[in-house]
Design brief:
Elements lengths: L2 E4 L6 E3 L1 E2 L7 E3 L4 E5 L18 H9 L8 E8 L7 E11 L3 E6 L14 E8 L4 E3 L5 E3 L3 E6 L9 E2 L7 E3 L10 E5 L7 E7 L16 E10 L8 E3 L3 E8 L2 H20 L3 H11 L1 E6 L5 E8 H5 L1
Parallel strand pairs: 1-5, 4-6
Antiparallel strand pairs: 2-6, 3-13, 5-17, 6-16, 7-15, 7-17, 8-9, 9-10, 10-11, 12-14, 12-16, 15-18, 18-19, 19-21, 20-21
Length: about 325
């Protein structure tokens, strides 16, 4: 196992999109670990430079990078040797740290879960205390921080062309699942040679739903281990935490998200415990939790969770 450090820079970041023909900025072997630095936000969200640290590479990316706006600044892609379409990439999230002492939150007219209720643009900067792991909200609340990456994904199928980073799809991307903290694993189906993993959209804290469009958006550093799984075959992201298995679904219709996440959980329970479809359906009704991941990314999200102790018996 080799450890790599991928720094954020104009040469290692792409802004607002995923695309199969992007050239990898780092090539690794299966089992390697990578520390990835990320940045976030456009020039309009920057705080007072005399009070807060702004990573210098953020200014460089603003000045030099092609952008697909609105969208996320992503670090990558990373190619994993031997990855081929049909494989699965296992991403172990080993650690996540803050890279700056501020974050931002905003909402815009005609966007979010209540698009007609808030007709004015609003953006606030939120000081972050890395020692105490709290964010200082403008009205005096100290909000506990639970950092995670909103966007983690591989390259889409070549036939999709260049796609926005805003909408989560089968290749992952803007999943916005707050369960994906250190200790979790994300499983992504591979669509192109090398898989081509990128991440960004760092969040300091987020509620399920992310209802006003953003969380506390901030720059994060993550440490990941990438393992190529040729023994797995599925076409949609899954995840697990130390205590739960998770299936996921994204669609403009939340009802369809529920259907897909539940169907995938029934399949998972068949794999893990050998249950019939009927028994797995019953167990889902008794012990699985359907949760709203986010309601603001064009394709909304549902994740279905079940305790590992129940799934294995």
């Amino acid at each position: 196992m080799t450890h790599h450090h991928l720094h954020a820079s104009p040469a290692t970041c792409h802004w607002g999109f995923f695309e199969a023909k992007l050239k990898p900025v780092l090539a690794i072997d299966s089992g390697d670990e990578v520390t990835i630095d990320t940045i976030t936000g456009g020039p309009d969200v920057l705080p007072d430079r005399s009070r807060f640290h702004i990573p210098p590479e953020l200014d460089a990316v603003h000045a030099n990078n092609e952008r697909m706006v609105p969208g996320h600044i992503l670090t990558g892609p990373i190619a994993i040797a031997g990855a081929e379409p049909g494989d699965v990439l296992e991403v172990d999230i080993l650690d996540i740290k803050l890279r700056q002492d501020w974050g931002f939150n905003l909402f815009r007219p005609l966007m979010g879960t209540l698009p007609d209720d808030f007709p004015e643009y609003r953006q606030i900067n939120i000081p972050l205390d890395a020692k105490r792991m709290v964010g200082h909200m403008p009205w005096g609340l100290e909000l506990p921080l639970k950092p995670f990456f909103g966007v983690m994904g591989v390259a889409p199928p070549p036939s999709w062309g260049r796609i926005t980073s805003l909408v989560p799809r089968a290749m992952g991307g803007n999943i916005d699942n707050k369960e994906l903290t250190p200790g979790a694993k994300l499983y992504l189906p591979v669509f192109v040679p090398g898989a081509l993993f990128s991440c960004g959209d760092g969040h300091g804290a987020q509620g399920d739903g992310e209802v006003c469009v953003t969380a506390i958006e901030t720059a994060l550093q993550g440490r990941f281990r990438f393992t190529l799984r040729k023994d797995l075959r599925f076409t949609y992201p899954r995840a697990e935490t130390p205590t739960h298995y998770i299936t996921m679904a994204m669609d403009p219709d939340l009802d369809q998200c529920v259907v897909r996440a539940l169907r995938d959980m029934i399949v998972l329970l068949g794999e893990k415990r050998g249950l019939s479809r009927e028994d797995a359906y019953t167990l889902c009704s008794l012990a699985a939790d359907l949760r709203v991941t986010q309601t603001v990314n064009g394709s909304k999200g549902i994740h279905c969770m079940i305790e590992k102790a129940i799934a294995h018996g």
